[in-house]
Structure prediction request, 162 residues.
Amino acid sequence: MSRTPLALVLSFAVLSATPAFAQDHAHGHSDPGAVAAEAADAATAVDAFHAALKAGDTVGALTLLAPDVMIFEEGGAERSRDEYASHHLGADAAFAAASEATVARRSGWADGDIAWITSEGRTTGQFNGRAVDRLTTETMVLKRHADGWRIHHIHWSSRAPR
Prediction:
């Protein structure tokens, strides 16, 4: 089993402890409520993934995932693009089509070929005959490949608004 997604997440932990990262954040070079310029294309890939799901373009959504993507949601894990495709991809596309997701806040940073995009938002609508109203958080870790940014890790969580 490939350890790349975990390695990418760990690289963030190591990077965040480095003096250069700490200096950039301490001097206000990276607004925690904004996407840094060097991460803009990675954020575009995240948006393209969500747009593909909403449009029911599951093939397009899958092309934005690395083969060894690790997806965490509600305490569960899918450990590859193929596993996601055979389990939750169809339901995620149906849910995205039936609901409206808004991003209230997004941050993003990149270091070389690694980027992480964090988003906070709200999803509302109707799905399977039930009302949906969830506050959402999402973290995506991406790696730049020769043909563009690919998502290597996703962590989704949500809760009911208070």
Q: What stands out?
A: The first helix runs from residue 4 to 16. Strands lie at 65-73, 76-78, 99-111, 114-127, 130-145, 148-159. The chain has a mean pLDDT of 86.
